[in-house]
Design brief:
Chain lengths: 304, 140
C-alpha cells in the first residue's frame, strides 16, 4: 500500500511496489482518458525552491491530466522562506491546505526534513546533488518500456557521476535487479563518489573508465548526463570538463543495434543533435514516460 | 611512576587506546563535572602495551554511544565500596543521535534547526557514519 507514504529516495518503495506503479503507468499510457478525472477535487502543492522547468511541468501536467489542481511557487523569493520561515513550519502550514506536496530544494536532505513535518505525502522532486527519485522512476519505466525487463543489462553511465543525483539514484535502484552490470564513464574529477561505489562492492559488478569510445559496443543502455554548471564552485573547472564526452554518430556506429540512449535532460553538448533521429535515442520519449509514471505515483500516494 | 589512589565509588573507563583518552574526556563532557576526574595517558598495560584510563569519582550516566564512537575497545567498570560491581564492554553503535555533525555544507541540517540528527553506521572498520538527511559520510 502506497497510500499516505512519502517518496524521498528511490528505495523507499520495494521492487513489488515499483512493479505495481509500472503496471498502473502501462494502463495510463494505453488509455489516458480513463484516468482524466480520478483526482477531481484533489490539490497538489508544487513547492520549487530552485528553478526547474521540466520537473515542475511534468508534475503539474500529471496532476492536471488526472483532473486535480495544482498550486505553488517556482521562485522561493515569493514564498514565506524569503521572510525567514523555517522549512518545517512552511511544510506544516501548507500540509493543512493540500492532499500532496511536491518539493524541490537546493539543500540536500530537504525533502526528508519536510517528510518529518508533513501530515500529507511528500514527493522529493530533487534535493540538491542528493536524490531525484521520480527521475529514477522515469528511468526505470523507460528501460522496462523499451527493454521489456529490468534484469540482465549492461548499463553505461556517462558524464558527471560526482554531482549527478539522477545517476546516484538510478544506480541504487538498478542494483536491486538481477544481473545488472555497470560501466561508469567519467573524467577522474567527476568520478562516482565513494558512498555509491561502496554500496555496490561485492554485490554488483562495475568498472570505471574515462573512455566512452572503447566501451560503446558492450552497452545495452547508455545513460548520458550533463555536466551541471550550478554544481561547480569554479567556472574554469566547469568549462574544462563540460565537453569531455560528446556522443555522436561515430560512437553510435560502434553500439549494439538494440542499445537505448537515455538522458534526464536538459542536454547541453554531450549528445550531438545529429543523432536525435536515431531510433536508439529515446531521451525525449523518456520525458513523456516521466509524466505517466508521475501520474501513477500521484494516484497511488493519494489512494485514488 | 605516578600513583593514583584506588577508587572507592565511581567509574573506571579502562583499555582506552593510547591517545583517545583526551578525546573521550572532552566528548563525554567530563571537563564540566564538579567531581574528581583523573585522566591517565600512556599507562603501561600487559594486554595493550600502553593504554589511557579515566577515573571518575561519581556514578554519572555515561553516553555509551559516544564511548562506542571514540573507542569501541574500551571497558567501563562500576565501583562501589572499592569493589568492581559491574563491567561493560563498549561496542560501536549502529545509530547515533545528536553526537555527530554533518560536514556537507549543502546539507539541510546546516541551515535548518534539526533536533538530534541521526547518523547510521556505514563502515564499521573505519567507523564512518551516514547522515540521515543527505547520506554524506562522516566520522568523529
Amino acid at each position: 500500500m502506497l497510500k499516505g507514504r512519502h517518496l524521498i529516495v528511490p528505495t523507499d518503495f520495494t521492487v513489488d511496489e515499483l512493479n505495481d506503479l509500472f503496471r498502473l503507468a502501462d494502463s495510463i499510457i494505453a488509455n489516458p482518458s480513463n484516468y482524466s478525472d480520478v483526482c477531481k477535487g484533489k490539490l497538489m502543492a508544487s513547492l520549487f525552491f530552485e528553478p526547474s522547468t521540466r520537473t515542475k511541468f511534468s508534475f503539474d501536467a500529471a496532476m492536471y491530466r488526472l483532473g486535480g489542481n495544482v498550486l505553488g511557487f517556482s521562485d522561493p523569493n515569493t514564498s514565506s522562506a524569503a521572510k525567514g520561515e523555517s522549512l518545517s513550519d512552511t511544510t506544516k502550514t501548507i500540509a493543512n491546505y493540500v492532499d500532496l506536496i511536491v518539493c524541490r530544494s537546493p539543500k540536500e536532505g530537504a525533502a526528508k526534513l519536510m517528510s518529518k513535518a508533513s501530515s500529507v505525502p511528500i514527493i522529493n522532486a530533487g534535493d540538491g546533488g542528493h536524490q531525484h527519485p521520480t527521475q529514477t522512476l522515469t528511468d526505470l519505466l523507460t528501460i522496462r518500456y523499451y527493454k521489456k525487463s529490468l534484469d540482465n543489462h549492461v548499463v553505461g553511465v556517462c558524464g558527471d557521476l560526482k554531482f549527478g543525483r539522477t545517476i546516484h539514484s538510478l544506480v541504487k535502484a538498478l542494483s536491486r535487479y538481477d544481473n545488472t552490470r555497470f560501466i561508469f564513464i567519467s573524467p577522474e574529477e567527476l568520478k562516482m563518489p565513494e558512498y555509491v561505489t561502496k554500496e555496490l562492492e561485492g554485490k554488483i559488478e562495475f568498472v570505471q573508465t574515462d573512455n566512452l569510445d572503447k566501451v560503446m559496443d558492450k552497452l545495452d543502455i547508455l545513460y548520458m548526463s550533463r555536466v551541471q554548471r550550478e554544481r561547480f564552485v569554479s567556472e574554469e573547472e566547469y568549462l574544462r570538463l563540460k565537453d569531455y564526452f560528446i556522443l555522436d554518430q561515430q560512437k553510435m556506429q560502434k553500439a549494439k543495434s538494440d542499445l537505448i540512449v537515455m538522458h534526464p535532460l536538459p542536454r547541453v553538448n554531450e549528445i550531438s543533435t545529429e543523432i536525435d533521429n536515431d531510433p536508439r535515442c529515446v531521451y525525449f520519449e523518456q520525458a513523456k514516460l516521466g509524466m505517466y509514471i508521475r501520474m501513477a505515483l500521484i494516484m497511488r500516494l493519494l489512494g485514488v | 611512576m605516578i600513583n593514583v589512589s584506588k577508587l572507592k565509588q565511581g567509574i573506571v573507563i579502562d583499555h582506552i587506546k593510547p591517545g583517545q583518552g583526551y578525546k573521550l574526556f572532552s566528548q563525554l563532557g567530563l571537563d564540566k563535572l564538579d567531581d574528581v576526574v583523573v585522566l591517565l595517558r600512556n599507562v603501561p598495560s600487559k594486554k595493550m602495551g600502553a593504554k589511557d584510563l579515566i577515573k571518575i569519582e561519581t556514578n554519572l550516566a555515561l553516553d555509551f554511544d559516544v564511548l562506542g564512537l571514540v573507542d569501541p575497545g574500551a571497558t567501563v567498570n562500576y565501583v562501589e565500596d572499592g569493589v568492581r560491581v559491574k563491567k561493560i564492554s563498549v561496542a560501536l553503535p549502529n545509530e547515533v543521535y545528536g553526537i555527530l555533525e554533518c560536514k556537507n555544507p549543502r546539507c539541510i541540517s546546516k541551515t535548518e534547526h534539526t533536533d538530534k540528527i541521526k547518523f547510521i553506521l556505514f563502515d564499521s572498520e573505519k567507523r564512518v557514519f551516514k547522515c540521515e538527511y543527505c547520506d554524506s559520510l562522516t566520522s568523529l
